[in-house]
Amino acid sequence: MKLNGIYLTGVGVHLPEQVPLEDAVAQGDCDEAQLTTGWRAARVAGTMPAPDMAIEAGKQALARSGHAPGDIDLLLHTSTSHQGPDSWMPQHYILRNTVDREVPAIGLRQGCEGFLAGAELAACYLMASPDRTAAMITTADNFGHPLIDRYRSHHGLVLGDGGTAAVLSKREGFAEVLAVNSFSVPALEGMTRGDEPLFPPGCTVGRKITLERQATSRPGDVTPQEAVVIAGKVEAEAVRQVLDDAGIEIADITRVIHPAAANELYLEHFLKPLGVGPSHGMLEFGRWNGHMGASDLLAGFDHLVGAGELRPGDHVMMFAVGPGMAMSYGVIRILGTPGWATS
User: Fold this and answer.
1) Scanning 121, 144, 262, 321, which has its CA 20 to 30 A from the CA of 169?
2) CATH number at residue 295
3) Mean per-residue pLDDT for 218-236?
4) 327 Cβ neighbours under 8 A, 6+ residues apart
């Protein structure tokens, strides 16, 4: 979807303590074999609830945006894991503790692509009425709960905690969101469902989340080889469409922000449909933080902007894939250097 006049005016992050993998191994939390996978550290929040990390990130994004709380007309919160008490909606808690306005607060469960899916929805909401100014999108996860093991849920994967936020606005900001597109691949729905029964839900009976088992026990209607072909076709069309909507070529892309990866070959698989190599990606950043669910994209973007690695005129592509199977792509043009960035 081509966007007109939708800007990023502020981003914020809350990244907790960085725990080196060697320390996690020494403490018995992580198997030594993970040291060979490329991961270097993970962000570990301890007992800090995920919604509180979203609040801290949201406050920072709002302060950086130059907007008053009264300018925010929508709050979207996206996550990939449990946020708090059952039947409780964290987005209203986040709203109350950030902008405290009687505006819609909506939760999204789109997996790792939650921020981009939220950005597309928020842009539509803002463009639908001239009376709407800005929207806040927050993301957060704490993988320290008993239902998942951040170091052992899947060999080759380390999960990190964190919260991020962005303010999308119709007022000009330091970056313009040129296009966002989301896609679904229904044929691959079973890839993350595996053979687990749908009822009773696993969390209600204390069943731990084992991503590796889910990935290797998928229903047999689609083989792994067929899945690669199906996903590849959708990815190719998604890339073509988002570039067309943004009015640029792949050669115009300065950096690509993606779900955290620690292995260069794995990252090449991600980036191959884009026609770019690992040097365009976020390999080192991911290695030192872990896969932070829906927070990877904004955390990576905040890192690049804050470190002064993006200049006016640069184009950034974001993409992510979520269970279901869903994928989203976005293109952002840098217009200026915000005051909080390192020059």
Assistant:
1) 321
2) 3.40.47.10
3) 80
4) 113, 182, 183, 185, 231, 234, 235, 238, 319, 320, 321
Domain span at 196: 1-336
The CA dihedral of 45, 51, 57, 60, to the nearest 10 degrees, is -130
> How many whole angstroms separate alpha carbon 178 and alpha carbon 188?
29
Name, in order, each residue with C-beta under 8 angstroms of 302's C-beta and a sequence gap of 6 or more. Answer: 11, 12, 13, 164
Mean pLDDT computed over 327-334: 97
Residue 20 lies in a domain: yes
Confirm whether 58 is domain-assigned: yes
Report residue 213 as tokens: 């088992």
pLDDT band at residue 252 using 50, 70 and 90 as cut-offs? very high
Structural domains of the chain, count: 1
* Distance separating the N- and C-terminal Cα atoms of the chain: 32
pTM assigned to the model: 0.94
Higher pLDDT, 232 or 241: 241
Torsions phi, psi for 275 (to 5 deg): 75, 25
How high does pLDDT run on average in the chain? 93
Would you say residue 341 lies in a domain?
Answer: no
Distance CA 238, CA 328 (A): 8
Report CA 200 to chain centroid distance, whole Å.
Answer: 28
Tens of pLDDT along 106-158? 999 999 999 999 999 999 999 999 999 999 999 999 999 999 999 998 888 99
Parallel, antiparallel, or unpaired: how do β-strands 315-322 and 253-257 relate? parallel
- With respect to residue 272, please indicate whether it lies within any of the assigned structural domains: yes
Task: Give how far the C-alpha of residue 187 lies from the chain's centroid of Cα atoms, to the nearest Å.
Answer: 23
Query: What six digits make up the tokens of 343?
Result: 């020059």
